TrEMBL record:
GO cellular component: plasma membrane
InterPro entries reported in the protein's UniProt record: CBS_dom, CBS_dom_sf, FAD-bd_PCMH-like_sf, FAD-bd_PCMH_sub2, Ion_transp-like_CBS, Transptr-assoc_dom
UniProt keyword Repeat present: yes
Protein name per Swiss-Prot or TrEMBL: CBS domain-containing protein
Ranges where the CBS domain occurs: 206-265, 271-328
Single GO term (MF): flavin adenine dinucleotide binding
Pfam families: CBS, CorC_HlyC
Length: 449
């Protein structure tokens, strides 16, 4: 009888290892995986699963049922073996037997399947597909019964629709990729930028009209050469009368073919090339493809009324993905935030609203964690910022302040929204130039001006 017992134990251990391996495959499906994990899943999906003639959900449940049956049968046989031995057993002997049982189960249920999963490509399962199919069909009645019970239990529960924004789903996927070692932090931010790139419109990445450098078509080439040398631009919009009448684009390299003796007499309009006009509501990914296809590097952005809203370049589109790109002609960025000693930031009016999250994210998180009195109806401080970023049409801090105030605010005016306090430092009758941003209720906010 010993050989029967030993054969049964060996068969159950093999069944446990196989079912645990298959159960792990179904568990890992749909997750971010390293290459060796993906090869096992690909081998199963291509070589084994189609031959089982079972749905994926039924096959996964069958593997789980087989695993539980093997565990239960092993525990039962070993317990009966111990109970049927002659003579009594001390507590030490029982404890040792239980410990040995746990070690054996851990090896065949955890360690061995993990070794198969990480050290093989899963091709070894294909030859034993008929055995796997027979085992799955053997427990199919149990699997169907469990599925029926789960369906009945699901009908008893009311459906709760949870609205999940695409950005939240993407954040969850990126966090999963980082946790599993597939993405590091830099890769995660790059992927996020690429995904967000498809949702942006030209208005968000363009150089706005007040910051455009353009020249009249009546300007002499001699003066234009001096302007190009001063500003360092390779392409310059050309207008007739006013900047709303863009007539073309002048290329700095075209000046190389102009003789010095002709530069004083000839005008910029003679060198201009046709300009491409782009609506400000156009998706940036569509514009990038068009500019690549047409070999265009600059487009004039127009608003819904046909007026010039700004200009956009290939560099602007790429910066939306990889961040700021500087060359030897770029002046030091004036819109970079300046942190003050009290935690406030001085930013230019053209500073992007979306970047406020980077400046105050940690401070808001710290404040939220210290707010013990927050109720369910009163969101924590860190929850206000996303509402601030998505509640307005303005994309710059200057535009945001003007939109909240309802007018172009004067220096000294203060507006608040959520946890942020924005004080205008400098402005003109047309735009806000400088703003101090801090957390409402902070020392800076409470100090009188």
């Amino acid at each position: 009888m010993n050989w029967i017992f030993g054969t049964s134990i060996f068969g159950l251990l093999c069944l446990l290892a196989l079912s645990a391996y298959i159960d792990r495959i179904y568990f890992e499906m749909g997750k971010f995986l390293s290459r060796e994990y993906a090869e096992n899943i690909d081998a199963w999906e291509n070589n084994v699963e189609p031959k089982l003639l079972l749905g994926r959900e039924s096959a996964a449940m069958s593997a789980s049922v087989l695993r539980q049956i093997a565990l239960g049968a092993l525990a039962f046989l070993l317990a009966m073996r111990l109970h049927g031995s002659a003579g009594g057993h001390s507590l030490v002997e029982i404890s040792r037997a239980v410990f040995e049982l746990v070690l054996v189960l851990l090896f065949f249920d955890r360690l061995l399947p993990q070794l198969f999963f990480t050290r093989t490509r899963g091709e070894w399962v294909a030859p034993i597909t008929p055995i796997v199919q027979a085992l799955f069909y053997l427990v199919l009645p149990v699997t169907l019964m469990i599925g029926l019970l789960l369906s009945i239990a699901g009908l008893a529960e009311p459906e709760v629709e949870v609205e999940e924004h695409a950005s939240e789903a993407m954040d969850a996927l990126l966090e999963a990729g980082e946790e599993e070692g597939v993405l590091d932090e830099e890769d995660r931010e790059l992927v996020r930028s690429v995904v967000e790139f498809g949702d942006k419109v030209v208005r968000e990445v363009m150089t706005p009209r007040p910051e455009m450098f353009a020249v009249p078509g009546t300007m002499s080439l001699e003066e234009f050469t001096a302007q190009v040398n001063e500003h360092g631009f390779s392409r310059v919009p050309v207008y007739a009368g006013s900047i709303d009448e863009i007539t073309g684009i002048a290329f700095a390299r075209d000046l190389l073919g102009v003789k010095d003796s002709e530069a004083e007499e000839r005008k910029v309009a003679e060198l201009q090339r046709p300009a491409e006009f782009v609506p400000e509501s156009k998706k940036v990914n569509e514009l990038l493809r068009e500019m690549q296809g047409q070999k265009q590097h600059m487009g004039i952005v127009i608003d819904e009324y046909g007026g010039v809203a700004g200009l956009v370049t290939i560099e602007d589109l790429l910066e939306a993905i990889v961040g700021n790109i500087e060359d030897e002609h770029d002046a030091p960025a004036e819109d970079e935030p300046v942190e003050e000693s009290d935690g406030a930031f001085l930013v230019s009016g053209s500073f992007e609203v979306s970047r406020l999250r980077e400046l105050f994210g940690e401070s808001l998180q710290a404040r939220a964690s210290s707010e013990d009195g927050a109720t369910e109806d009163e969101p924590a401080a860190e929850d206000f910022l996303p509402q601030l970023l998505t509640g307005y049409e303005a994309t710059t801090v200057g535009g945001l302040v003007s939109e909240i105030a309802g007018h172009i605010p004067l220096p000294g005016e203060v507006v608040e929204d959520g946890p942020l306090r924005l004080e205008v430092i400098a402005s003109t009758d047309r735009l806000v130039e400088r703003v101090r941003v801090c957390l409402a209720g902070s020392q800076t906010a409470s100090e009188p001006e």
